[in-house]
Amino acid sequence: MGKSRGELKAKLMAEAERAIDDLLDWHLSTAKPNLAQVEEKVLALRQRLSEQMSQTVIEAQAAVRPVPGPRCEQCGAEMRYKGLKELQVSSWVGDLQLDRGYYYCEQCRIGLFPPGSTT
Ligand SMILES: [Zn+2]
Fold first, then answer.
1. Same domain for 5 and 54?
2. Residues within 5 Å of ion ligand 1, judged at the Cβ atom
3. Are residues 87 and 108 in the same domain?
4. Both 20 and 44 in a single domain?
């Protein structure tokens, strides 16, 4: 079962808070940073937060396991659920490591991470 709104919010708030703490630690320990250094720090934190935000909502959606399983695009048979598997995804916000439900067709030897990516 997927996480509730409250659980997701708590997770995202904790990640945002960690980014803000990171920034303030850096701010307090860096004497007179120039604009480029500030930009570099903020962009790095933004990058990390973007990845965490994406990961959190994508994983929350994937946690809803479709029943019946998806159809194999080759033979049309129902694909079997094989549990969660780690999937590396390059996205606009960065490289994401996601735990996604994985489905497999024994006959065609095709794997699928619904809704989209085949392996
Ligand atoms: Zn098949």
1. yes
2. 72, 74-75, 105, 107-108
3. yes
4. yes
Predicted pLDDT of residue 17: 97
CA distance 17 to 20: 5
- What separation in Å is there between the alpha carbon of 1 and the centre of ligand 1? 27
Please give the distance, rounded to the nearest whole angstrom, from the Cα atom of residue 32 to the centre of ligand 1: 61
Contact yes or no for 20/5 (Cβ under 8 A) = no
Could you tell me which of 8, 114, 10 has the C-alpha nearest to residue 57? 8
* pTM score, whole prediction: 0.66
Domain extent for 5: 1-64
Distance of CA 116 from the midpoint of ligand 1 (Å): 16
End position of a domain, from candidates 23, 40, 64: 64
What is the Å distance from ligand 1's center to 106 Cα?
7
Residue by residue, pLDDT tens for the chain (119 residues) are 468 899 999 999 999 999 999 999 999 999 999 999 999 999 999 999 999 999 888 888 766 676 788 999 999 999 999 988 888 888 888 888 888 889 999 999 999 988 766 66
Regarding whether 56 and 72 lie in a shared domain, the answer is: no
Ligand 1 centroid to Cα of residue 81, in Å, is: 13
At residue 12's C-alpha, the angle toward residues 24 and 50, to 5°, is 75
